[in-house]
Amino acid sequence: MKRPLSIGCIIVLVLFLASCGQPKDGQLKSVGLLVPETINDQVWGTNGYKGMLKIQSTYNRDVFYKEHTDSERAVKQAVKEFSKQGVNLIFGHGEEYASYFNKLGKQYPDIHFVSFNGKAKGDNVTTVNFKGKAMGFFGGMVAGKMTKSKKVGVIAAYDWQPEVKGFLDGVKFQQPNAKVEMKVVKSWDDKKTARQYADEMIKSGVDVVYPAGDGFNVSIIEKLREKGIYAIGYVADQSDLGQNTVLTSTVQHVDTLYELVAKDYDKGTLKTGNLMYDFDNKVISLGKFSPLVDKAYQEEIRHYINEYKKTGKLPDQQQK
Predict the structure, then answer these.
(1) Comparing 11-130+254-281 with 132-252+290-318, is the CATH topology the same?
(2) Rounded (10°) angle between helices 44-59 and 254-267
(3) Residue among 43, 91, 41 nearest 69 (CA)
(4) 93, 163, 232, 307 — which has fewest CB within 10 A?
(5) How many other C-beta atoms are found inside a 10 Å radius of the C-beta of residue 156?
(6) For the segment 58-104, what is each residue's pLDDT rounded down to a tens digit?
């Protein structure tokens, strides 16, 4: 997901972690990660950091990261330092890095640049993209199944999010009579506005909410838990926020994705351009189900997911 730019100090840390086994031969030397905010947000940034740990553990390479690289100047300085440290694979943890990397790719031909979304331009630039619609669809099905008031809410960061469109379709497929109330925050991190929308939804009788913004979803789920209202988690498996609140989560396994990209790069098979990842790549899944979700229904959802992996068709298409 794209993260917004913010002002902050640059923090440079190097991970020298012990690893079992011998270094593997290949193209990968050292890896760098640029994060627009922090790795301690327990959602997006943290998942990127976990990806670095996986790469380090698998390849026994040095891994570097910088937080608060939230401007072109900061990115240029970070890449310059990474280059001196022998880094030849850099991940930009957000959409904003795509335009920076398209420019820097020409200056650093020996480094491969990877960011989210955007459009990659150059022989050493790649963007990775989650196919979000399916995860939203299956999350919407669970919401449609569990709503008692037949009123479901979506608090989206932006109206273009494919997972939001998928969620709306999933609710409609499972519960055609349900009313879905949608609010758009126009930010990944505006907790104040998101909480205001949550209050409005609670007052209107909504009993399941999908907070589709990784900067505010934890805050919203905590509020919903206090009010006894269900939630569908977003980006990470958020069942730990309350198994009687979080019915399931739409999970993007950024750590697994980063490991896959590093593997391809090490083998010399990483493609440039725009790459798409989905359930079949094991980088998207539903999280743990709440015990409140009937086991038979859990199996039904899993069946639909398996069919989607095989056919690429969502349940509303499978039945046509």
Answers:
(1) yes
(2) 40
(3) 91
(4) 307
(5) 23
(6) 999 999 999 999 999 999 999 999 999 999 999 999 889 999 999 99
Residues 6+ apart with CB under 8 A from 302: none
Pull the structure tokens for residue 156.
Answer: 């989206």
Tally of CA atoms within 13 A in the half-sphere of 146 that contains its CB = 30
CATH 3.40.50.2300 holds for 11-130+254-281? yes
The domain locations on the chain are 11-130+254-281, 132-252+290-318
pLDDT reported for residue 319: 65
- Is there a contact between 221 and 233 (Cβ–Cβ < 8 Å)? yes
SS (H, E, C) the chain: CCCCCCCCCCEEEEECCCCCCCCCCCCCCEEEEECCCCCCCCCHHHHHHHHHHHHHHHHCCCEEEEECCCCHHHHHHHHHHHHHCCEEEEEECCCCHHHHHHHHHHHCCCCEEEEECCCCCCCCEEEEEECHHHHHHHHHHHHHHHCCCCEEEEEECCCCCHHHHHHHHHHHHHCCCCEEEEEECCCCCCHHHHHHHHHHHHHHCCCEEEEECCCCHHHHHHHHHHHCCEEEEEECCCHHHCCCCEEEEEEECHHHHHHHHHHHHHHCCCCCEEEEECHHHCCEEECCCCCCCCHHHHHHHHHHHHHHHHHCCCHHHHCC
Contacts of residue 172, defined as CB under 8 A and 6 or more positions apart, other chains included, come to: 140, 144, 178, 180
- Rounded to an integer, what distance in angstroms lies between the CA atom of residue 72 and that of residue 79? 11
Q: What pLDDT is attached to residue 294?
A: 97
Q: What is the pLDDT of residue 314?
A: 97
